[in-house]
Amino acid sequence: MGWRGILGFEYGIVQAPLGPDISGPELVAAVANAGGLGFLRAPDWESPDYLRGLIRKTRTLTDKPFGVGVVLAFPHEENVNTILDEKVAVLQVYWGDCSEELVLKAHQAGVKVVPQVGSFEDAKKAISVGVDAIIVQGREAGGHVIGQEGLISLLPRVVDLVGDHGISVIAAGGIVDARGYVAALALGAQGVCLGTRFVATEESYAHPTYKRNLIELNKTEYTNVFGRARWPNAPQRALVTPFFDEWKSLPPHENEVNQPVIGHATINGEEKEIRRFGGTVPNMTATGDIESMAMYAGQGVGLINEILPASEVVKRLVEGAQQLIQKEFSGL
């Protein structure tokens, strides 16, 4: 293992599973080849054959290990079985019950389990069922946000809770550069998980308009206007686009079901309608009113100024953190 490695990976840099299909094989393989841990995102419906194809395609692009993220709020049993059958290195789970049974089943298949949590209580439960690492998500994070606490207060509490259990703690939420990485290390994390920064990469499957907005806009807001029917009680942090600014006060009784179709996209092999407020971010295939679609981003988006290759993101994080520690802190 190299500098600050976790879970057998060279570096403590994790690329978050970006839904619905923004972190595809090209992005995940690029992160893996650069020494980080990249996550595919399983479909939000049972699609074991398609998922198997994604995993195998990724393996044609890298001989390094990688992971798959699964949202437990959606049908997932067959998808999880595929991940274990394919012996993917890491199963990341979110928004649901990371049970002892699931962890045991994964470990029997040789697969490590990493839940993402947003509270001290959920971290405590994850430790009790024997997980291999924990991603601690602060409220600063982009996309769907499971907790209410900021990273700077929650992270050290979880680090103290983990103690000597041998579980890696990974920080997530608003981190986009080496300064954020070093700050997370100072709070006791062994690694960092980045989402928005990896959306804004050359290999990401995000629509060019989404990527451009991540560079040009710098304000986000915690909201629940997107996907109220599809994924209830799942607030999100979104980029404040002109569309969002106009509609952010959507009355609580309204949702996407009765809204007009504003576009279409092929998502994980299936043709999908995108309704206004549906909450589906535009991927590379999206057509229609792209500017009116959800665009999720964390609070660190204002620090993202260019679209980079994923390998360059990893390199700048690692080298920048090493230099920062040597320059600023080694003489203390």
From TrEMBL:
- Protein name, per record: Nitronate monooxygenase domain-containing protein
Q: Which GO terms describe its molecular function?
A: nitronate monooxygenase activity
Q: Which InterPro entries match?
A: Aldolase_TIM, NMO
Q: Which UniProt keywords apply?
A: Flavoprotein, FMN, Oxidoreductase
Q: Superkingdom of this entry's organism?
A: Eukaryota
Q: Which PANTHER family match?
A: 2-NITROPROPANE DIOXYGENASE, 2-NITROPROPANE DIOXYGENASE-LIKE PROTEIN
The UniProt entry, under Pfam families, shows: NMO
Record-linked SUPFAM superfamilies: Inosine monophosphate dehydrogenase (IMPDH)
